[in-house]
Design goal:
Helices cover 59% and strands 8% of the residues. It is mainly alpha-helical. A hairpin with a 2-residue loop joins β1 (116-122) and β2 (125-131). It is globular, with a radius of gyration of 20 Å.
C-alpha cells in the first residue's frame, strides 16, 4: 500500500510539474487541468491503498461488470480465495493463474452456480474440499459480474461473461 501511495504522489508531482512548465498561452486552463488530474491521481492512489479488491477492479480489463464483480467477490469469495485470488495452500485453490478460471467460461459458471465437491488439481497441487453452490443466493447478474472479475484480475486475461451466459448454464 505504501508503494501505491508513493506512486500516486509521484504522479501528482509529475502532473504539477508539467502544468507549471507549460508554455501554453492559456496557462490558467492548463493549471486547472493539471490540478484536476493531480486530484484524480491522488484519489486513485488512496482508493488503491484502501482496498485490494478495489485496486484489482480498477485494473480489470472488463470494465464496469468487473468492478461490480469485485464487490461480490470481496463479500462472498475473498475469505476462502483471498483478496488477491491466491487461495490458501491445501484448502482453497488459487483463482489467479488458474486455467479453469480463464478457460471455458461455462465451466467456471457451473462451479459458481452449482458448487464443486471432491479432488481437483490446480498448478500441481491437489485440493479436496467443497465449493458452495451460489446459484440460490446470488443472482445471474451477480454471478456474471464475479466471473468477469476473476477472469480479468490478478493477471488473468479472459473474456467477460454476461447474465445470459450464466442463465444458459444448467446443471
Amino acid at each position: 500500500m505504501e508503494r501505491l501511495t508513493k506512486i500516486g504522489l509521484a504522479g501528482l508531482a509529475l502532473v504539477l510539474a508539467l502544468g507549471a512548465c507549460s508554455k501554453s498561452s492559456d496557462s490558467s486552463s492548463t493549471t486547472a487541468s493539471a490540478t484536476a488530474a493531480a486530484t484524480a491521481a491522488a484519489s486513485t492512489a488512496a482508493t488503491e491503498a484502501a482496498s485490494p479488491a478495489a485496486s484489482s477492479a480498477m485494473v480489470a480489463q472488463n470494465g464496469a461488470a468487473a468492478a461490480d464483480g469485485a464487490k461480490v467477490y470481496e463479500t462472498n469469495c475473498s475469505s476462502c480465495h483471498q483478496a488477491q485470488g491466491t487461495g490458501l495452500a491445501g484448502s482453497f485453490p488459487p483463482l489467479a493463474g488458474n486455467p479453469v478460471v480463464t478457460g471455458d467460461a461455462k465451466q467456471v459458471i457451473h462451479i459458481l452456480k452449482y458448487g464443486l465437491n471432491g479432488k481437483i488439481q490446480v498448478a500441481g497441487h491437489t485440493y479436496n474440499g467443497m465449493m458452495p453452490a451460489w446459484g440460490q443466493s446470488l443472482s445471474n447478474a451477480d454471478i456474471a459480474a464475479v466471473v468477469t472479475y476473476i477472469r480479468s484480475s490478478w493477471g488473468n486475461k479472459a473474456s467477460a461473461v454476461t447474465e445470459a451466459d450464466v442463465a444458459g448454464v444448467a446443471q
